[in-house]
Amino acid sequence: MTGVIFAETLRRSWKTALWWGLAIGSLAFMQVAIIQDVTLIQQTASIMESLPPFVLQMFGSSGDLAFLATPDGYLALRFFGFVLLVFAFYSVIAGMNVTANDEEAGILDSFLSLPAARWKLIIEKVLAYVLLTILVLLMTLVCLLAGIALAPAIEYNVPNIILATLNLLPSMLVVLTFTVFAAALFRRKSAVIAVSAAFVVGSYFLNVFASAASGTIFSQLDLLSFFHYYNSADIMMNGLSVVNVSILVITSVILIVLAIWRFQRRDVGV
Amino acid sequence: MSNSAAIIDTRALTKVYGGSKRSKRALDQLTLSVQQGEIFGYLGPNGAGKTTTIKLLLDLIRPTSGSSTLFGMDARANSMDIRKRIGYLPGDLNLWAGQTGKQIIRYYARVRGMSSVPYADELAQRLEFDPSKKIRAYSTGNRRKLGLILALMHKPDLLILDEPTSGLDPLVQQTFVELMREAQTNGQTVFLSSHVLSEVQAICDRVAILREGQLQAVRDVGQLTHTDFRWITLRFDRPQPISLIADVSGVSNVEADGDTLKLRLTNDFDPLLRALNGVYVKDICVLEPTLEEIFLTFYGGNGQSTHNGTTTQANDEVKS
């Protein structure tokens, strides 16, 4: 029956998503609430000035120091620069919940004896976790805006902050669908976790090292990293990149199609 | 045996796990038919291939070769239509630990497109199952009860039960037998796997015996019972000589131990009881043979029955 798995997944997981949103939101809240004047932001930027460009890249900075000295630049560096790594772990956990956890626990044996198609199981669960991811991001955004409201002396570009928060979604989708794909390939939960974690961490460092190697052939390697298309600093300066978002969404769709294709064909619960 | 009215029909169904170097042939050329309204026992020791067969029928795993049909439909191509008509109890039922029994019953019912499940409430009452607790709080027996409710609640045309009474106490086992009889009366078909001979004897009409992935025989239960044996311990008021019963028809392996005689009895009790006429018997203890002992008796190492002095091909019914 259409929508049953979707609704059940939401029912079971909304509280966890809320806690994730609150936890990361609290982090965002503290980042903006403790800075009550621009001087502190400029001091932070001057410290950054002494760092090599690839270190700045590790924090998600574009290397534009004038931008870093602005409130938006501060937020891009101190929050949006690293928070995707944290959110990526939520996406791995969510991806594990689609099939990997139930398969290793031996639950899929019983569940797939019901008239529920394998592709439907994946689609409905993934859609539920997309909605839950949006819930996490909205919670985070609410906390972020609450923190901004407590610092009236500092002017933030709120529309761009909203866009930067929403811009986390396509990257999180890539991680979520990659984990689902890994679970379709490997039956063992430990293998799925290892491959997915390697994907996230590997993408992060690929992006950093490619930035450090600018001007060389390796500088193009970051095109393989989803962090490259995330580019938080650029969004805070110039708004959303439709091209980047499209690339991430299309990648997610391809991954989910591959996951379904594989999961439809393999033995379950062996 | 080919039968167009068969509920389950497998043709040379084979499953090999693993790659070419470390492959394991879990099921080998299984050809089997189960008729509508039958309670069919699928008997074999652990690792014989019973669960593999069930998973193939449910399309959870895919055959290496061969095919199977349920309700006349291909198990792979028509899996969804087939699963609508099936109730399945896995041998090792695992469910979401943080959910209550009631939540899981409702969830499974909704997936089946049912808005309410009155029969599930009735089953819970009959099995004395409390659905309000979380799964992690249930004992093994209670989990089996929940598994039975999930398998039976929609009154499916075919019940596939893997070791259904494992972990159930004797009273609930009796209720289970009643439920199976009722299912049969309602025209439902039951395919149950077990490694407990007495369970199969109590419920089933026909039995298939599986060993190391190969079908050894398909028999009526009465036939199987007739061909098995029992271990008997006789306790007398004083020690008795082995010669008292050594030559009795069906008696073998006689051992004396103080005032008791232990023996193996094949076929009827009557010749033994007649031989004991005039001797004071304080106690008789009858032990069922284990499944492995039945196998050893029923089939020699070459896979041929040597019971009762006859020699028949072990899987004669399958091959005919």
Describe this structure in words.
The complex is a heterodimer of chains A (270) and B (320). Chain A has 270 residues and is an all-alpha fold. Chain A has 14 helices and no strands. The radius of gyration of chain A is 20 Å and the shape is globular. By secondary structure, chain B is of the alpha/beta class. Chain B contains 11 helices and 16 strands. Chain B has helices at residues 50-57, 79-84, 101-111, 118-126, 140-152, 170-185, 197-203, 221-227, 270-275, 291-298, 316-319; strands at 6-17, 24-35, 39-43, 65-70, 73-74, 86-89, 158-162, 189-194, 206-211, 214-220, 229-236, 251-257, 260-266, 281-287, 304-305, 312-313. In chain B, the strands form 4 sheets. In chain B, strands 6-7-8-3-9-10 form a 6-stranded mixed sheet, with helices on both faces. Chain B has a 4-stranded antiparallel sheet with strand order 2-1-4-5, with helices on one face. Mean pLDDT of chain B is 86; it is low at 301-320. The chains are: A mainly alpha (270), B alpha/beta (320). At the A-B interface, helix 1 and helix 7 of A face helix 2 and helix 3 of B.
Brief overview:
In chain A, 77% of the residues lie in helices and 0% in strands.
Ordered list of secondary-structure elements with their pairings:
The complex is a heterodimer of chains A (270) and B (320).
Chain A: H1 4-33, H2 38-49, H3 53-58, H4 65-68, H5 71-98, H6 100-104, H7 107-111, H8 118-149, H9 158-166, H10 168-185, H11 189-212, H12 226-230, H13 232-238, H14 242-265
Helix pairs in contact in A: 1-5, 1-8, 5-8, 5-10, 5-11, 5-13, 8-9, 8-10, 8-14, 9-13, 10-11, 10-14
Chain B: E1 6-17, E2 24-35, E3 39-43, H1 50-57, E4 65-70, E5 73-74, H2 79-84, E6 86-89, H3 101-111, H4 118-126, H5 140-152, E7 158-162, H6 170-185, E8 189-194, H7 197-203, E9 206-211, E10 214-220, H8 221-227, E11 229-236, E12 251-257, E13 260-266, H9 270-275, E14 281-287, H10 291-298, E15 304-305, E16 312-313, H11 316-319
Parallel strand pairs in B: 3-8, 3-9, 6-7, 7-8
Antiparallel strand pairs in B: 1-2, 1-4, 4-5, 9-10, 11-13, 11-14, 12-13, 15-16
Helix pairs in contact in B: 4-5
